[in-house]
Design brief:
The chain has about 850 residues and is mainly beta. Helices cover about 10% and strands about 35% of the residues. The protein contains 10 helices and 45 strands. The strands form 8 sheets. Strands 1, 2, 3, 10, 13, 14, 26, 42, 43 and 44 form a 10-stranded mixed sheet that branches.
């Protein structure tokens, strides 16, 4: 995550979005995630034909993206490392007794007597112009601070039952995976309605499970606010709130109001405190709630900065603290089709099962496919993995208003395929021609009548998920994107300061000015001052002088530094490095130029013992002797890593003769070996191997089991001679699948050379121009970190429990990208220099 979010980052994301889209579309979403977000991500689901891929198979652009992701992770870690260690006194700061009684704060409205801040020429902002559509609102002098009253604890079964009664659900109670790692939630359902309960504050109610799964909620409804208010009041939710259509999620945000009338919110673009979607009939379909549990008696009333001061901080990108920025590009939602079947008619249906064990011993589990409960011949399904792809044969029936599927037989040995390509009409058949370069054509069984046949362009795409039956595709889900761009996001700012409510101000360090240089200069890094450090010692450690450190950091008081301070220090120039027999995996890519000429790119993927890797671009005349058949295999390289990080090859050698990727059939089992949980693969001939993940230097864990133990599977593997784990030979696995009943064979993929057509995929993004930004909403709100946002983060317990005032600025760039900034509103005297630990959305 960058220190500062810019539209250029999103612009580059747009440039590579078509490539990222395919990668993101391989993500399978857990069925217990929030219902609408499930809809958003289901539209991006792409089943995997391969379980793993070598870095060499990825295009140079995607490798660049992967490296940027790694860099982002490093930056994210680095930013976290810049945040000073938490101070225990913060959560126990005394409260001024005189501040115990809250007084109403004035509503924040535009000040008719103020001078409009809008200027015709706008404000200079990140290389573009920033405009605002309204005068800055009048600023109250004070605002309240509230406190989350307690941790949200998992509900008891009795509490879950009581909440279900409020929604009129009379059904069985099942166990569901909790959002908090290692915990369980309750699921109560009557077969149509469902309620997933974690606590009295966190729950998801669904009025119709099948409708929610297969139909996009209605995007808008003129009577939405009335419908939502009547529904909430009828079900016992009587808190004050306002309703507005969400620009990020489908549906409506129900935003609670504080006792003094100001809106309350979590991090922007995380799940709101309550979100409601309506179905196509204008009735409530889903209520997704993660409400705030807080003491309505304020801790006190404290001075805040004005809207003008907050606006000045927004414009100043040298200010990174007390600020949280979010942004995202417009989401391009696809048109979707889900295959439907008539009731009381024989049908074979493919999809993902979801299993909920009963809370009562001896009672059967609830098994659901695409929102429909299954019954009948389901014996054995309860042992399947959660969200396994299966085929079921039987028929849909309706009993007492609940639609169910009567299973006559089921089959887990079916492989889901994803085909993207071009649609065409051939007689009375609809054909999809794959765009993977193979030209393979498939006849779509029972296609929808309104598919965009003949209307596709390079800017849109059709993807079909289903099961192959010979050359026919029995589909269950189709998506059509009008455009392949959009949907990216990011964040910036280092976060908020901890609060100091003691009434005794704590001095802040002098701000560090930002220095800009023209031309080459010595690179610098960030060092966090530790106890016992002095400028003299640091100057000696980093091979520089005290005066240089003062200049780099804008220090005015020589030799004065403080613990936790971020110091910019000089770094040594990179040096050339000789390497001999550097081992890695070879990657070969073919670049086809716009004029028809071509050139090969060679890379070396060097894996580390930690599982990470470094990828070097190789150059030098010796590479002309590398045969294409070596692609993806281990290789030893001798040469020089230059200052630009490229590997100049003097010579190379292949450490193994006749080493090849191969396809093996066999079974898997989970075992304990060498003190670790590993997967053992046993071939049909009886040879056993410990599975590794592609080029990674350690065993795969049990989460990479395909199907269930004992299923006949086939895998593409690379078996390197003399490589063992706990004295057992190792197989590096690149793709796995259950053996299909139709006998179709897996093919070796990992040694294929990627062809990069630069006429279609330019090597560099087009020149970026910063778009203008318009701020269209400014308001004072109360903010607290979402109790369930990144709840499994190790720093979660260190997050602030204070509900504090912030200035919220929202806007949109000229290219449609959204802009959202929260500025901490409390005056500096009520803050500490330390920052609250935590991760920001990105």
């Amino acid at each position: 995550m960058n220190d500062k979010f810019t539209d250029k980052t999103e612009h580059d994301d747009d440039f590579i979005s078509q490539k990222l889209n395919r990668a993101s579309q391989q993500t399978q979403v857990n069925g217990q995630f929030a219902a609408e977000l499930e809809e958003r991500l289901r539209s991006a689901h792409r089943p995997r034909a391969e379980r793993f891929a070598t870095f060499a198979q990825v295009s140079p652009t995607l490798r660049w993206v992967a490296l940027m992701v790694v860099l982002a992770l490093v930056l994210s870690w680095s930013i976290k490392s810049l945040i000073p260690a938490p101070q225990p006194a913060v959560d126990n700061t005394p409260v001024n007794p005189d501040m115990q009684t809250p007084t109403p704060a004035p509503d924040v409205v535009p000040d008719e007597n103020s001078t409009p801040v809008t200027r015709e020429d706008g404000y200079n902002f990140r290389g573009g112009k920033l405009f605002i559509q309204q005068p800055l609102p009048e600023s109250p002098g004070t605002a309240h601070v509230y406190l989350m009253s307690r941790e949200d604890r998992p509900a008891t079964q009795e509490q879950a039952r009581a909440l279900a009664d409020r929604f009129g659900i009379q059904g069985e109670v099942y166990r569901s995976s909790g959002l908090v790692f290692g915990t369980d939630d309750f699921l109560i359902t009557d077969g149509k309605q469902s309620l997933q309960v974690h606590s009295d504050q966190y729950f998801v109610y669904t009025a119709d499970m099948e409708n929610n799964h297969n139909v996009h909620p209605a995007p808008s409804d003129q009577d939405a606010e009335r419908i939502i208010r009547e529904f909430l009041i009828a079900h016992g939710f009587d808190f004050r709130f306002k309703v507005f259509a969400s620009e990020f999620y489908v549906g409506y945000v129900v935003q609670p109001l504080a006792p003094d009338g100001l809106p309350m919110q979590y991090e922007s673009y995380t799940a709101p405190m309550m979100r409601i979607t309506l179905d196509k009939n204008g009735e409530v379909l889903v209520v997704d709630a993660s409400l705030m549990n807080y003491d309505s008696n304020a801790l006190g009333e404290y001075g805040i900065i004005s809207a003008q001061e907050a606006f000045d901080k927004l414009l100043d990108d040298t200010i990174l603290t007390g600020k949280v920025e979010f942004g995202h590009s417009p989401t391009n939602m696809p048109k979707e089709w889900y295959r439907t079947y008539a009731d009381n008619q024989p049908a074979t249906v493919y999809g993902y099962n979801t299993i909920y064990p009963s809370m009562e011993a001896g009672k059967p589990a609830l098994i659901v496919m695409d929102g429909v409960p299954l019954f009948g011949n389901t014996s054995g399904m309860e042992s399947l993995e959660h969200n396994s792809f299966i085929g079921i044969t039987g028929q849909y029936i309706v009993e007492n208003g609940v639609r169910k599927f009567n299973v006559e037989s089921w089959n887990r040995k079916v492989n889901e395929v994803w085909v993207s390509g071009i649609l065409s009409q051939q007689g009375d058949q609809v054909i999809v021609t794959s765009d993977d370069g193979s030209g393979q054509q498939y006849t779509i069984i029972d296609p929808p009548t309104d598919l965009p046949i003949g209307s596709q362009t390079p800017e849109n795409s059709v993807g079909i998920s289903g099961v192959l039956e010979g050359d026919s595709l029995s589909w269950y889900y189709i998506q059509f994107f009008e455009s392949n761009s959009g949907g990216g996001g990011g964040g910036g700012g280092l976060g908020f300061h901890k609060l100091n409510l003691s009434g005794i101000p704590v001095p802040f360090p002098s701000p560090t000015p930002q220095f800009e240089t023209s031309g080459p200069s010595q690179p610098t890094g960030i060092y966090i001052v530790q106890e016992g450090d002095t400028l003299a010692a640091l100057a000696q450690r980093f091979g520089t002088s005290i005066s240089t450190l003062n200049e780099l950091n804008g220090l005015t008081d020589e030799n004065i530094i403080f613990i936790g301070q971020n110091l910019r220090v000089p770094m040594p120039e990179p040096e050339e490095q000789s390497v001999q027999d550097l081992r890695g995996y070879l990657g070969i890519a073919l670049h086809i130029k716009a004029d028809g000429s071509s050139v090969k790119e060679y890379t070396l993927n060097v894996t580390q013992n930690s599982g990470g890797s470094t990828v070097y671009t190789m150059e030098g005349p010796a590479l002309s002797d590398l045969a294409d058949g070596y692609n993806g295999l281990p290789i030893l390289v001798t040469g020089m890593i230059n200052k630009q990080g490229k590997l100049v090859v003097d010579s190379f050698r292949m450490p193994y003769d006749n080493l090849q990727f191969q396809i093996l059939k066999g079974t898997q089992r989970v075992a304990q070996l060498g003190g670790q949980t590993v997967i053992i693969f046993t071939t049909e001939e009886g040879q056993t191997y410990v599975e590794y993940l592609a080029t990674n230097p350690f065993p795969a864990d049990s989460s990479f089991l395909i199907g269930i133990e004992g299923d006949l599977i086939e895998e593409e593997v690379l078996i390197i001679p003399d490589e063992t784990f706990a004295d057992m030979p190792v197989a590096h696995v690149y793709q796995s699948a259950i053996v299909q009943e139709n006998g179709s064979a897996m093919e070796v993929q990992s040694n294929r050379i990627y062809v990069y057509n630069e006429s279609n995929e330019p090597t560099t993004p087009p020149e970026f121009t910063q778009p203008d930004l318009t701020i269209n909403k400014i308001e004072l709100v109360y903010f607290v970190s979402n109790p369930y946002y990144q709840v499994n983060d190790p720093n979660y317990e260190l997050r602030s429990k204070y509900i504090q005032p912030v200035w919220h600025f929202q806007g949109v760039y000229a290219n449609g990208n959204a802009f959202d900034v929260l500025i901490q509103a409390l005056k500096q005297e009520f803050l500490l220099p330390e920052l609250v630990p935590g991760s920001l959305p990105g």
